Amino acid sequence: MGHVFEPGSLAFVMYRTAEDSPEVMYEVKVLKLDKDRKDMYFIHYQGWKQSTDCWVSELIPYTEQAKAKKEELDEEAEEYVRQVKEERMTRRRERHRAASKLAKAEEDAQPDTNGLRITLSATLKKILFEDFENITLKKMLLRIPRKPSVEQVLEEYIEYSQQDFGLCSPTGKVAPETAVQIVNGLTIFFERCIGPYLLYEFEKLQYDAIRERVPENENDVLLPDLANKKRKRLARMYGTEHLLRMFVKLPILFEGHKLLCGETETLHLVLHDILKFIAKCRDRYISPNAYEPASDDYLMIVQDL
């Protein structure tokens, strides 16, 4: 049995660009035949460049029924492309709104009442934006407890700051004991702020589950570690993402607290040195794998709240 199609014959080829995309039919012209294989044809896609010419093994006869099928598939493909473009535009608008909200939050968190201002690098802003997007748009949650934790990050910063040429080294601008006091204060401040100020609405159910293990005394922010009966603080549960959120909000959280000129300058130095340290060690402290999709049960409960 010879070839079904002859050189010069018109036919159609079925093609799919991706697994989730609809099939489309292209009109082709048979240019030559394979002498050894009776099912191989060298074709030219009508209206396309010669660089797309290729060998194929499956051709659809050029019939009225096939032409009608092609028109039907073309309409489906156009609708698919329209939906893809619309989804991309929607995601783009959502990202723009998210970025605007984040920028507005950062702007609102910079009051001039005490002279405290926090300046984030582009790297840290990107981390915060991706965190915002993962939680609020993609409906994901950070795995808790986070490793390294807030407490670990700040402890490692103290060690880093006392190295040669560090902020708290013998030639540095801040005494080591002063930096330790500030870091201890930040840890306590974090534990008091995490629930009321540092969570997105979508995370609050997760936080409530953690708080169920907190002692009844509302002023006691220590969590019992059920595994070894040691007390575990919230700063050992949450990680760098929530710590960065606190840094953005520090100026507004400090609003009303008058700082002396020297105190403000020292606090500025330590806070921005911590931010530089986090940016430098971001590969250790930040990971996209720290997020996981919220469970169906979690999503159902959140929707009912």
From TrEMBL:
The keyword Transmembrane does not apply. GO terms for cellular component: histone acetyltransferase complex; nucleus. Its main location: nucleus. Residues 63-90 form a coiled coil. One of its GO terms (biological process) is regulation of DNA-templated transcription. Residues 104-292 form the MRG domain. It is found in: Nucleus. Residues 18-75 form the MSL3 chromodomain-like domain. InterPro entries: Chromo-like_dom_sf, MRG, MRG_C_sf, MRG_dom, MSL3_chromo-like. Keywords: Chromatin regulator, Coiled coil, Nucleus, Transcription, Transcription regulation. The keyword Nucleus applies. Pfam families: MRG, MSL3_chromo-like. PANTHER family: MORTALITY FACTOR 4-LIKE PROTEIN, MSL COMPLEX SUBUNIT 3. This is MRG domain-containing protein. It comes from Mucochytrium quahogii. The lineage of its organism: Eukaryota, Sar, Stramenopiles, Bigyra, Labyrinthulomycetes.
